[in-house]
Design a protein that fits this description.
The protein has 150 residues and is of the alpha+beta class. The chain has helices spanning 12-26, 35-41, 85-99, 114-122, and strands at residues 2-4, 46-52, 55-65, 68-76, 104-110, 126-135, 140-148. Residues 1-150 form the N-acetyltransferase domain.
């Protein structure tokens, strides 16, 4: 089941810890945020949580300004990958953004993350640019991708 962060009956501190642990396991280079940064991000990013009972199997966070949105983070537990969770999270996001009249959706992905890049291409994202040395630990280029929603 996919719910918003606000629909969860769990405390924000508990959610920040769970999301941090999930991201730390899921990302090849560890979590992009600390627990404290996740907690702070709840104020300005919208979160979708893929829940199985009380366990978070995946999450997606995004921001929206006017008619454009950006996926900030998306992660799925390693043992739950290849079960369509990421795709379901994105499709819920597409529907929410279309209802809000968003036209474009952006994201960045590590240049070396071929699995994610192919996944996003299958979802209709196209490469629009590169950001040199965008990522750290290790230093790597980001591929900026875009999807038209309407």
């Amino acid at each position: 089941m996919i719910i918003s962060l606000d629909e969860s009956n769990l405390t924000k501190e508990f959610l920040a810890e769970k999301i941090y642990n999930l991201a730390n396991e899921s990302f090849a280079t560890a979590s992009p945020y600390t627990k404290e940064q996740f907690l702070h991000s709840f104020k300005y990013e919208t979160y979708l949580l893929y829940m199985d009972k009380e366990e978070i199997l995946g999450f997606l966070s995004y921001t929206k300004v006017l008619d454009e949105a950006e996926v900030v983070n998306i992660a799925v537990l390693n043992q739950a990958k290849s079960k369509g969770i990421g795709k379901q999270l994105l499709h819920v996001l597409y529907n929410e953004l279309k209802n809000e009249q968003a036209v474009l959706l952006f994201l960045e992905v590590r240049e070396s993350n071929e699995i994610a890049r192919v996944f996003y291409e299958k979802e209709g994202f196209i490469k629009i640019s590169e950001r040199k040395n965008y990522y750290h630990s290790p230093v790597e280029n980001a591929i900026v991708m875009q999807k038209k929603l309407l």
